[in-house]
């Protein structure tokens, strides 16, 4: 029989050390919000492959669509021989993106690739080079996206130099002492110290920081950022790789802004486990690069397009946007009850079903926001895994537990997972 320990030993011997792993578990099979490991142990999955499984593991409709596509063709390269699923997916994403203007779409394979291309497109349109990203932001592991990422350890360390003309402003984070005014002032500082606004092509911002800790960008801040962008002819890019595909209660989180970004990057849950990503944006901007300037051998793979179209149908049929809102509310209510009982939980927050809690050391029986507790967070993850729940941490201080459970999970399974989380939080208190 196979064991996790044996497979971990083979992994350590054969796979580069730099690839991290949250849990020392090897999967055997998975369905919706449950996974079974190679030793036959069952887990409730609150990680969803890092925000990829809003429609659950192996949704039958997604699998059926992929199987049908496998019987027709698997690859032609869209730049050689085109196929309808690519065009249909582009039409659907254009219709879903907010903004009172026409849109076009470019398909790629990973989130980082979408962000790379959004920057290329913004530069081609504006004929400017500068990009302003935010502290704590995460945009991927390629050179440009690492440059944009606002966290050195473990992502950027040892890999530089990164492309020039990238600057970091402060992300507003009330809990950790950065007000909206502070964040806006930090942009003015960049204009004063580093680059004139006339040379800035784009701002790139996550509607809710993902890897950075599930901090929601205040709508008031986004509106002011939009105004600043308009004032200086700068584009606004919403990186929705983690927030998109219904996680936050709307298809794109930026639908809740009341102002539209010029470009949106999206990936992860849009195809329910198959690798595809997109840049969706204003037609005039999207059409700036010359023919041949955009693309990729596998970009917009027909298999992944078929999966993405099936995901969109599942969202309609199962009303997953409403589910995302209701589920988020339910999870937040339960986490808030746990926070009243356990003083180490210093904050519960989120948007739709993108929910997190943040753990701190206590002083006089109260969470101290100056003492993020990453060790406690890791203990909770281990306690939960032992009890059959897969959790993920995140955050600039490593002290946030995030919930990315499939929206298709039953109420009973959600509550089972939350009960285990509750027990694990209690067990992990020092
Ligand atoms: N942007 C954001 C906001 C992300 O959360 C991620 C992945 N965690 C990426 C970009 C990179 O996506 P990928 O890993 O698919 O390249």
TrEMBL record:
Its EC number is 2.6.1.19. CDD domains: OAT_like. Keywords: Aminotransferase, Pyridoxal phosphate, Transferase. Pfam families: Aminotran_3 (PF00202). The keyword Protein biosynthesis does not apply. It comes from the Bacteria. One of its GO terms (molecular function) is 4-aminobutyrate:2-oxoglutarate transaminase activity. Gene3D superfamilies: Aspartate Aminotransferase, domain 1 (3.90.1150.10), Type I PLP-dependent aspartate aminotransferase-like (Major domain) (3.40.640.10). The keyword Transferase applies. Coiled coil: none annotated. It is an enzyme of class 2 (transferase). Its cofactor is pyridoxal 5'-phosphate. Belongs to the class-III pyridoxal-phosphate-dependent aminotransferase family. This is 4-aminobutyrate--2-oxoglutarate transaminase. It comes from Roseateles agri. The lineage of its organism: Bacteria, Pseudomonadati, Pseudomonadota, Betaproteobacteria, Burkholderiales. The gene is gabT.
């Amino acid at each position: 029989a196979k064991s996790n320990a044996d497979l971990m030993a083979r992994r350590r011997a054969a796979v580069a050390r730099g690839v991290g792993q949250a849990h020392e578990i090897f999967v055997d099979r998975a369905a919706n919000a449950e996974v079974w490991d190679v030793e036959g142990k069952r887990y409730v999955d609150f990680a969803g492959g890092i925000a990829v499984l809003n429609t659950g593991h192996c949704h039958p409709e997604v699998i059926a669509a992929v199987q049908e596509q496998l019987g027709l063709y698997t690859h032609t390269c869209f730049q050689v021989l085109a196929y309808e699923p690519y065009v249909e997916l582009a039409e659907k994403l254009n219709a879903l993106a907010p903004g009172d203007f026409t849109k076009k779409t470019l398909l790629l394979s990973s989130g980082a690739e979408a962000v790379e291309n959004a920057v290329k497109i913004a530069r081609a349109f504006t004929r400017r080079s500068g990009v302003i990203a935010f502290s704590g932001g995460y945009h991927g592991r390629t050179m440009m996206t690492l440059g944009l990422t606002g966290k050195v350890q473990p992502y950027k360390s040892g890999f530089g130099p990164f492309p020039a003309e990238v600057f970091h402003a402060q992300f507003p984070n009330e809990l950790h002492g950065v007000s909206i005014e502070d964040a806006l002032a930090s942009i003015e500082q960049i204009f004063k110290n580093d680059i004139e606004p006339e040379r800035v092509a784009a701002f790139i911002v996550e509607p809710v920081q993902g890897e950075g800790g599930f901090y929601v960008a205040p709508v008031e801040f986004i509106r002011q950022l939009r105004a600043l962008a308009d004032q200086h002819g700068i584009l606004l890019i919403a990186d929705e790789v983690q927030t998109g595909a219904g996680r936050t209660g709307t298809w794109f989180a930026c639908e809740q802004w009341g102002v539209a970004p010029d470009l949106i990057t999206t990936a992860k849950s849009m195809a329910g486990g198959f690798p595809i990503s997109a840049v969706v944006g204003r037609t005039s901007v999207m059409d700036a690069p010359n023919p041949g300037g955009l693309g990729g051998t596998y970009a917009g793979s027909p298999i992944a397009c078929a999966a993405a179209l099936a995901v969109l149908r599942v969202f309609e049929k199962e009303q997953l946007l409403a589910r995302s809102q209701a589920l988020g509310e339910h999870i937040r209510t339960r986490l808030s009850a746990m926070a009243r009982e356990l003083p180490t939980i210093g904050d519960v927050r989120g948007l739709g079903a993108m929910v997190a809690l943040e753990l701190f050391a206590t002083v006089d029986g109260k969470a101290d926001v100056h003492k993020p507790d990453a060790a406690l967070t890791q203990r909770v993850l281990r306690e939960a895994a032992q009890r059959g729940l897969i959790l993920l941490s995140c955050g600039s201080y490593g002290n946030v537990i995030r919930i990315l459970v499939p929206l298709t999970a039953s109420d009973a399974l959600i509550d089972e997972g939350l009960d285990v989380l509750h027990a694990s939080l209690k067990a992990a208190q020092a």
